[in-house]
Amino acid sequence: MPAILRVFTISIVLLVACAVSTPIAQAAQTPPQDDAVVRTLEPLMAAEFALQAGRLDEAARWYLQAALAAQDMPLTERATRIALLARDDDSADRLLSLWRRQGGQGVNFLAAEASLALRHGNERQARKYLVQLLDMPGDEGWRQVLGVIVAGARDPAQAATVLETLVRQGRIPGKLQAWLAFGGLAQRLEQPELAERIVAEVVKRFPGEPRVALLRASQLREARKKDQARDVLAGVVEQAGGDSDLRLAIAYEYDALGDLDAAAATLARGPQDEQTYALRASLLARGQDKTALVALYDELRRHADTPDPQRRLLLGQIAEFLDRFDEALGWYQGVPGGPQRWPASLRSANVLYELGRAQEGFAHLHDMQADAGAPDDARRDAYLLEAALHEKARDAVAEKDAFSRGLAAFPDDLEILYARALSWERADDIARAEADLRRILVIDPESVAALNALGYTLADRTDRYQEALELINRARAAQPDNAAIIDSYGWVLYRLGRNEEALGELRQAFALQKDAEIAAHLGEVLWVLGKRDEARKYFEEARQIDPDNRSLQRALEKTVPEKSTP
């Protein structure tokens, strides 16, 4: 049963159970129009249908009616969440009042109270609920506060004001993890002074804790003080010792600074396993440090006498990156068995293609596709890789044929359909991309990826903005805190001409995830609103993350003159 209908079904069962428990004589005296089940069922069905259609404003109104009729706390909680998501503050007010009368309590209730108070601009009232959450034992309360500040605030300025007050009043729990999380939030909200204050407080509370230094390094990196960030990291590397998690965190910071060699060197300091070796290889490959990668390759193959499938697969991948395709093929073909056999077999086809033996590679993939002993996911991936190689060869006919044969072998496979939809979109065949995404939604009406992809495609590549909004709203209802979905929502609001609303959503998305596409969208909206210096800042952010991002290139073509392009 689709999850979106579960509460609907449960609520109906509860209502029917209540009706069954009513004395027969009493039921007989009750006029049919007053029956609680009848009065609740119609608006509840209408609410669910509106929600499935992506009409959140309509769903919120029907949910309110159903909750008032049912007097059922789980239904009231769900209705409140939908009203908040739809930004229907009047309905949310009435539902929260009902929830209070029903004895509402706990993290979800307090988070809803705080979110609506922020919506109304009543920061003092919101802080009262946030403090109650922060005072709860365990971690769930303060984690909810993070979510409320990011998603509940009307804009980043209000979020920063609330966070600053909580810090100044000493309300953050005395846990290192909580302080680090709120420090990270201050950075994402682009509040360097507040982040500095949090770092100072953390240093005072947790002296000598290396993870505090990581927060400091992250703060300096966000402030573009990269040399100072490197100095801080250099001072903490020695403390990592045998702490693999700490080494991984330090390597992450070096990676974010663009110091891939330093990240790999950090991982090389402690005990090694296959995951560490793979991460080091990936970092060195991304950094194009072939000298260090050759050294790692030589180190690994000295100990590859035994037929360790994982080691040989990794050696094949490193050799492939080093363009030693003959060696890579040998390593892949030498994987003796186990789950690594199938990815090694797939990589063999790719290596044959790179060796100029494309027909052998395609024949190898065809053999995998026909191998009844191969796992279904390996056979399916053979079709996907074949399509990708044909795309690389710019053979669109053969690419689409691979997809078609894959779907003949695996009817309605969601991954093949999704990959083909993206291929159609890259080729500017929006009608066929839409057809495949809609086919996914027939098979799995709750596919958040397909809902978001189709909604975004319609918003970005057509003028069917209302339809796009409804699809994206369905994705938002399932995953309201997903940065990619919030970005899509902001983008369709922009396309609808609701620029100020779009700006708020895109700022929230970027606070949740530093992504080139989100930054490009944010820059374009800021440019249209006349905030061009800030727009250029986000275009530069996007360029640093991914200079080839398609959304960035389109935004620059529409906004920044060529002479001032970042």
TrEMBL record:
Signal peptide stretch: 1-27
Keywords: Repeat, Signal, TPR repeat
TPR repeats mapped onto the chain: 516-549
Pfam families, alphabetized: TPR_16
SUPFAM superfamilies on file: TPR-like
UniProt keyword Repeat present: yes
PROSITE patterns named among the record's database cross-references: PROKAR_LIPOPROTEIN (PS51257), TPR (PS50005), TPR_REGION (PS50293)
Protein name, entry field: Membrane protein
Annotated organism of origin: Lysobacter concretionis Ko07 = DSM 16239
